[in-house]
Specification:
The structure holds 3 protein chains of 3 kinds. By secondary structure, chain A is α/β, with parallel strands linked by helices. Chain A is built from 11 helices and 11 strands. Chain A folds into 2 domains: 180 residues, 3-Layer(aba) Sandwich (D-Maltodextrin-Binding Protein, domain 2); 99 residues, D-Maltodextrin-Binding Protein, domain 2. Chain C has one domain. Chain C contains 21 helices and 2 strands. In chain C, strand 1 and strand 2 form a beta hairpin. Chain C is globular. The chains are: A alpha/beta, B mainly alpha, C mainly alpha. Chains in contact: A-B, A-C, B-C.
Chain lengths: 321, 141, 501
Amino acid sequence: MRKSLVMVAALAFAAPVLAQGFTPTRPVEVVVHTGPGGGSDVLARAVALIIEKEKLVPVRMQVANKPGGGGTVAAAYLAEKKGESHTIGFFTGVWLTNPLTIEKANVTLKDLTPIARLVLEPAVIAVKADAPYKTLGDFVNAAKQKPGELKQSGGSITSRDNVVRQQLQKVSGARWAFISFPGGGERIAALLGGHVNMMVIEPAEAGEHIRAGNIRVLAQVSDKRLPAYPGVPTLKEAGFDVTPVPQVRGVVAPPGIPRENVVYWEGVFKKLSQTESWKKFLADNQFEDGYQGAADLAKFYDDFSQQMRVVLQEAGIKLVR
Amino acid sequence: MKAPGADFWSGLALGGLGAYIVFEASRWEYLGPDGPGPGFFPLWYGIAMVALSLALMIFTFKENESVDWTGARRALGAWAAMAVSVAALKLLGFLICFAALTFFIVAVMYRRPPAVAAITAVASAAAFYMVFPLALGVKLP
Amino acid sequence: MEILSGLMQGFAVALQPMNLLWCLLGVVLGTVVGVMPGLGPPATIAMLLPLTFLMNPSSAIIMLAGIYYGAKYGGSTTAILLNVPGESASVATCIDGYQMARKGRAGPALGIAAIASFIAGTFGVLGLMLVAPPLAKMALAFSSPEYFALMSLGLAMVVLLAGRSMIKALLATLVGLWIAGIGIDPFSTTARFTFGSRELLSGLDFVIVAIGVFAIGEVLANMEGREAVKALPVPKGLRNLLPTMQDMKDSRFAFANGSIIGFLIGVLPGAGSTIASFISYGVEKAVSRRPEEFGKGAVEGVAAPEAANNSETGGALVPMLTLAIPGSSTTAILLAALVLWGFKPGPLFIPENPAMFWGLVASMYVGNLMLLVLNLPLVPLFAQVLRAPAYVLYPAILGISVVGVYSTSGSHFDVWLLAGFGLMGYLMRKLDYPAAPLILGLVLGGALERALRQSLMMSEGSLSILVTRPISAVMLSLAVLILLIPLFNKFNHWRLRALEK
């Protein structure tokens, strides 16, 4: 009897030590799906720097660029690293939508291990400063009168830019053209050069042009007003009953990793989201804090996929899953 | 009638490629609601490819400028060696495969004595090791 | 004058000993990176980013910019000596540069490349300094129809690169267009010509095709001969290792044409140094008094593309610094660096950060000078590479190609593709299909299709948009004229023959 008491006592002391579980012992590979300088790459590097500064992780975080396939190569790479404890990846919205439309994109977020959702990227609807539209309503009405004539520049047809367009078109009955430009710079150039009438743009990209007086913001694509744009109505406030589909960025890990790893990484990113450096980073880049833990992220993914399926189908894009 | 020359055959091959392109392109959307679809461009250059290939075949049918294939065996042999080397990269890594390829080229292609081949192979591999991973931090396959 | 005072301010910053050191480090690193095929400025800059946080931003941008334009100097070295394009912009240099090396004129080729790069690089900085904001505004007038016309103009250059068989050149171009189309169509998410492979979803990297077809194809072709001991003739004596006065005279126009075309194309966001170098090469050949020399080792065939790809860096910085619009992957990461350091690039960047802008401009003058001083004396040294016996050199070329390709993507699949394109390059050589049009088609194909579809979307399906807009109409007419040149020549030929009878 005494022996077992001792055993239980020993276990009770040992348990917290055991539960301390995982800490990385060699450099951690951070997978991104863009080349150097691309959106994910820059975010990953910034996060690595903040983590280092705040000493949240005892080893180096090294960014590994795995571009290609519109994000599918990076996702597949992570899926292949089953059980690997020193690899994580940064995902963006394309990781979520690719599996819906591209046959070969067979790695969904559920096939990997969700860790955390970090950022929500807001967007604003902008026109050139000398355009005759003062509100979103003006633009939509003009589009109604000349169906198909007005033009919007944006990314690929599954990008958030087009999703917003599809939603607005559906709810207003107006119709305008969408022109894909692979590079963000080209989209802005098209707007500034007067070749398109409107675009959905991220506040960080727009900021300086607004300050210089080149473009004007009509509405913001979010549920509540951003601190940087107190005077700009949201879509709902502007009279369009549309639920904005969020553009997210977050962290995933390869499949099949032990529970304690997930807890560890979740802890790291939770702490990250609470640091001052991170808050400053978000403010500087005009991102919204979209922190969600692993379980919430998994649920978010389901909701998001459902929402996207509906939108894409209405846009006439073929779904493969 | 003389047998058709190399140009004829390459023209035929390209014509085949062109036909394949046209076939694939016809399966895709030619003109969508928002503008030309994925099939638009390939269809046109596929057709151009077929047309030009036919022209090539017709114009060179009579000529029999034969290509000098005498050295081809060596060149293709070298390529085969390279292909084997690339195939083995995942298993054996760059240094070994490269040294082996170098050895092959020196000894077989250029008929140098095995000792020279071996030295060259090792020296080259060493040089690569020093320059790339050590000095520049570039990973070798 | 404002510009003069700004420049004085800039030199005050750039000539500080620490900044001179950073500049030197940047350009040397850039040169090394440029020499290596596959490894490029974007990856290098990305790797150095953490280091830059310990420096002050002015010094950091001086160093990073040094890497950017330094790489252009380096890319020509392997292009000329080994027919391996170190940078995608160096492909045009391979055409005549390597031929010059084969004739024992590697030294003059390298020298002219360095000199052209210096002249054009300086011109590019001058342009950046003098006309940046107004030029950027004008560049905004360029949109899809104009890009389509520009790409068509570039493709029309095929006619000038043709060599003996026009049909074969055109076929090669079409194959290039096809390869460019492999991948996911951005407008519709349809996967085209991917043969079910995931790796091909994002298309083929241009570098893989170029190195495979040029470098490996060349090595394989050379393997046919058993007895080649020395790979290429090495000139003896210092005089033969540097360009002659005659070379400099022949290249006069090339310097000018390359500088101007490179800079203007650089200003256009989205049009890169590869296009600039090819167009410049084409123009040079078109106005040359001895066009038949091109492709066989004409020195101006090296000077023109080298000048173009260097002044393009100055041009690319124009939209980046005035509108925060990146024109290439390198400018994209430079922009990202600026953002990470806490700056806000945009129209107000230059007025609000004059010290940084002028410091950068001044440092670029200094950097180009450093590169000239570094590269010229190194020319004889580099030329000695050719002394190596064939059996050492050729495997080394194969090895460098493989490492270079692998370093960009870390994918074995890409190395396989490289081998495949090497075989293709060899076959093309044997069957007399010219490689340059293939590359041209590959480089321009994607942009051409995108621009066409965007234009048609803008005009709701009407092709007239291409000719009603003045800029695109002019360029398209030029393209058509160029395409008609061979017909014109044939007609002339026929007429002369008729007169003889």
